[in-house]
Amino acid sequence: MEEEKCPKCGSTLSEVIETPTGRKLQRCSKGVWNTETHKTEGCDYVKWLEIEPEVLDEKCPKCGEPLVLQVTRFGKKMKKCSAGGWDKEEKKATGCDYVEWINGTTEKLDEKCPKCGEPLVLYTTANGKKMKKCSTSGWDREAKQATGCDYIEWLKVEYKSAPNGEEFLPPEDIF
Ligand SMILES: [Zn+2]
Ligand SMILES: [Zn+2]
Ligand SMILES: [Zn+2]
Prior knowledge:
0% of the residues lie in helices and 44% in strands. The protein is mostly beta strands. The protein folds into 3 domains: 1-49, no CATH class; 54-102, no CATH class; 104-154, no CATH class. The strands form 6 sheets. A 4-stranded antiparallel beta sheet has the order 6-7-8-11, with no helix packed on it. Strands 12-13-14-17 form a 4-stranded antiparallel beta sheet, with no helix packed on it. A hairpin with a 5-residue loop joins strand 1 and strand 2. The chain is flat and about 65 Å long. The structure holds zinc ion (3 copies). Residues 6, 8-9, 11, 28, 30, 43, 45 line the site of one zinc ion.
């Protein structure tokens, strides 16, 4: 593979850096992240790498083609049909349009709710945050209000520090 050059200044690009959300990028080797000023010094070119979708062992309920797991640029996950595509010129979806967003998972815990004594569940959100909540809690879609017990305990997530200043990178487009 030919070595890629920065389109802004012609320097070589850095090694691939993986962000805490699993995304990959390369910076211009002439760019340096200054942790004190929170600014890039030198060339600010950043190249985001496409994340290869993972083919799942599941079939599309609409057309029977395999589903793929895709992670958006914001770390949200979805399953979509491999027969689906996007026509950039016509700006419309082509093929099968089946999409299923993955919203997080719940896991039963061997602990009781301190408020009502019912079991607690561990809820992991789509972007990896965890909380313990009461298994009796729910959401009434019609009344648009929470039902059951409202006990929630957020678990501390150990934030990996981002020495490359990921949180200050330029905004990105949604695909
Ligand atoms: Zn550059
Ligand atoms: Zn399909
Ligand atoms: Zn409870």
